[in-house]
């Protein structure tokens, strides 16, 4: 999803830049940079490791960065490292590191959610989105309607929405009079549908053509 967004954003940056190759991890305060490198080198070639320290005392804050040479290596580290590291993609350097650390701490300290939860839920972006969405009285469901001014190709649309875990089906329909695209998407959980709507409403697919994603009634109690 990160790479797809980068391609659709209109920027000409190299996809293998810092935003996709640098991860942020929670570590024991006794770790040195060498310890950090040793724990994460199995996932790929590391460009550098750094530990965040208290500016006054010089003591480790128990947080660190690991930058890989390739986005695929950073993604593998996030997926496969021990959950205790709470690894996520790091914010770009031009954003406030202190506010990012604060958000990371406050989100990471929440109790783990159980059941059919998304792997994205530990990312600050999704956690802040969760809090904001609870204030919006919008009926939600596991089913989505996707509209486009261009017709859809079944396999491509399925692959796009399958980036979010839990996709049950993707039914593409076509209006013979307008040639516009219309599809019904259903996920196994409302959480997946909410995340898909959040990430893909307004997404340009193909570039220049924005998708409109809204909830459809699925017959279930939306209060769940």
UniProtKB/TrEMBL annotation:
<dbReference type="InterPro" id="IPR035979">
    <property type="entry name" value="RBD_domain_sf"/>
</dbReference>
<dbReference type="InterPro" id="IPR012677">
    <property type="entry name" value="Nucleotide-bd_a/b_plait_sf"/>
</dbReference>
<dbReference type="GO" id="GO:0003723">
    <property type="term" value="F:RNA binding"/>
</dbReference>
<dbReference type="InterPro" id="IPR034206">
    <property type="entry name" value="RBM45_RRM2"/>
</dbReference>
<feature type="domain" description="RRM">
    <location>
        <begin position="21"/>
        <end position="95"/>
    </location>
</feature>
<dbReference type="Pfam" id="PF00076">
    <property type="entry name" value="RRM_1"/>
</dbReference>
<keyword id="KW-0677">Repeat</keyword>
<keyword id="KW-0694">RNA-binding</keyword>
<protein>
    <submittedName>
        <fullName>RBM45 protein</fullName>
    </submittedName>
</protein>
<dbReference type="InterPro" id="IPR034207">
    <property type="entry name" value="RBM45_RRM3"/>
</dbReference>
<dbReference type="InterPro" id="IPR000504">
    <property type="entry name" value="RRM_dom"/>
</dbReference>
């Amino acid at each position: 999803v990160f790479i797809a967004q980068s391609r659709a954003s209109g920027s000409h940056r190299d996809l293998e830049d810092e935003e996709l190759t640098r991860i942020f991890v929670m570590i024991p305060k006794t770790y040195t940079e060498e310890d950090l490198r040793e724990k994460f080198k199995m996932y790929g070639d590391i460009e550098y490791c750094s530990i965040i320290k208290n500016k006054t005392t010089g003591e480790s804050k128990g947080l660190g960065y690991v930058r890989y040479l390739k986005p695929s290596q950073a993604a593998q580290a996030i997926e496969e490292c021990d959950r205790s590291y709470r690894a996520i993609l790091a914010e770009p350097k031009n954003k406030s590191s202190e506010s990012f650390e604060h958000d990371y701490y406050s989100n990471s300290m929440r109790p783990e959610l159980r059941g059919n939860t998304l792997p994205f839920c530990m990312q600050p972006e999704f956690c802040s989105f969760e809090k904001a969405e609870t204030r919006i009285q919008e009926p939600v469901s596991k089913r989505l309607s996707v509209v486009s001014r261009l017709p859809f190709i079944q396999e491509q649309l399925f692959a796009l929405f399958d980036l979010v875990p839990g996709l049950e089906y993707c039914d593409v329909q076509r209006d013979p009079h307008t040639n516009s695209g219309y599809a019904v998407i259903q996920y196994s959980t409302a959480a997946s549908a909410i995340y898909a709507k959040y990430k893909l409403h307004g997404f340009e697919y193909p570039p220049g053509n924005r998708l409109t994603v809204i909830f459809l009634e699925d017959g279930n109690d939306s209060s769940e």
